[in-house]
Each structure stands twice: as structure tokens, then as C-alpha cells.
Amino acid sequence: MTARVIVLAGPSGSGKSRLAERLEQAYGWPTLRLDDFYRDADEPDLPTITAGANAGLVDWDHRATWRQEDAVATLLTLCREGRAEVPVYSLAESRRTGTQVLDLGGATHFCAEGIFAPEVVADCLAQDVLAAAYCIAQHPAITFWRRLTRDLRERRKAPLVLVRRGLALAGDQRRVVRGAVSAGCRVATGHQAFQTLGVHASPAEPGRDRP
Q: Can you give the pTM of this predicted structure?
């Protein structure tokens, strides 16, 4: 089989995962979580934050903390074979905890979402598997609050670290969006992207929530 990928980029907390869940409910499109390709915290040579209150901690927003080649290889396997073994990563523990099989179940499309999603756009274009690429963006204050409440709920890091990181990311949001646009992503809210992505659904796929 040959499936096509919908890349969902955007700042942490912008609503990428929420949109991916909605697309799966509406059309049966599974999601490849690109954040599961993070490196383990105890690996050598991880980049660290060099300034500010969190200086010295691992800079998880740096692309060098992420296994791009593995993510792209897995993405292409899903497109060509319809299933692939994917890592399971614990953000709270900052390490890989296992693997699982992601099976598209015959779906014609799937989502690939994560903060490093813009890094896979060029490879998807080169391999002619890209259906669409979006950068999901909200007002920085909304993104900050959503990210903070999610990270606290999931206990991803210590509360003070999360607050400080959130403030830094809010100030960096415009740069992140510009980078995604430069990589080939279209800026939209989650609702706007959902409304337009329905054109990729085939008649054989479920449509319980079609726009």
C-alpha cells in the first residue's frame, strides 16, 4: 500500500495532538508521534540551555535532542508498508521505555505531529508522500496556558522548570512559526486545519465528524 502523510507542526501546546486526535476520530487516520523519537537524557553530548533560569538543563527544544533519521525512516516505512515498529518514549522520565507497532489499518493518510515536525517536510516532499503540512498556532498566551496545564497534569518536569520553560517558549513562538513556514508549512489554527483537511478523506474512510 501507499499512504500519504499530514505533517502537523507548531509550538508545544498549540493543539497539534488535539487536532491529530480529532482527525483520527473523524477519518480513522492514525498518528505517528514524532516526540517519541527524542534521545534519552543520559546520552552523551546532549545540548544544554546556556542562559536564563534553566541554564545547564538539557535543551529539549534543540533539534540535536531528536533522532531525525529514525523518525523519517519510520515515516517512510509507514507510507510504503502500512505498519512500522515505533518507540514509546516517556517525557516524564526523558527516556525510551519500549516499542510498539503502529498499523495504519488500511488508512490512506496518517498524521505525523511534534515540535520537530518541520524537519521531515523536505524528506516527505522528496519522496512524494506529503499530503499537507500545517503549523498549528494560537495566541502565545493561549499556547502558554494550554502547555503549562498539560505538562503539569502529565508531570513532565518539575513545576518551576515548566513555568520557566513555558515563558521562554512563549517569547520564542514567532521564531518557531517562521521556521515552520520556511520549511513549507501553512499556518492555521487547529479548527481551520481540520476544516480543510477533510478533502483528503476517501469515500471508504469513516466520516463521523466531517466538516
A: 0.81
